[in-house]
Amino acid sequence: MQDTEVNVSGENVPKPISSFESSGLRQHLVNNVKKSGYTKPTPIQRYSIPIIMNGRDLMGCAQTGSGKTAAFLLPIINSLMSSQEPPIVEEGTAQPSVVIVSPTRELTIQIYEQAKKFSHNSIVKVVEAYGGTSTNYQRNRVLAGCHILVATPGRLNDFVNKRNCC
Ligand code: AMP
What we know:
Elements: H1 27-35, H2 43-53, H3 68-83, E1 88-90, E2 93-95, E3 98-101, H4 105-118, E4 126-129, H5 135-143, E5 148-151, H6 153-161
Parallel strand pairs: 3-5, 4-5
Antiparallel strand pairs: 1-2
Bound molecules: adenosine monophosphate (AMP).
């Protein structure tokens, strides 16, 4: 996995990182990454982390098992940890800072678990929402406020139409 060739296009692409320690990610986040057993970034993480941290748009494509989830989650969680803003809920509508739409319940749970792990013991609150389970329970969790909402499209649409979220 570590020697996978990476092709990047775009102008003035930020330089890839060589380690989590020198990535500029907050120390608390780097500690959580280390606790996950990751010793060094995978190729897609080496490129995506500085690109997203520099506020650039990114469309990434890499094979299954290449570390794509952490590739986008780490810079997002880093930014939320740095802002230290509490989750917003206004007039009964939750306004997550980040919405991650994923096609299946399994993938939603997987992304949610990783996001929880990386944001452990921090201000960052993560909530998941997917079909086939109690809407009430998930709605209450969303309405309690979150920074990151990981959801399948159907359940997300349901919450948006009922003005519970976003
Ligand atoms: P993903 O492609 O995001 O589904 O990740 C595939 C697997 O690789 C998951 O089990 C991750 O926990 C693991 N993984 C992701 N990044 C790293 C890394 N930098 N070092 C070791 N394992 C990783």
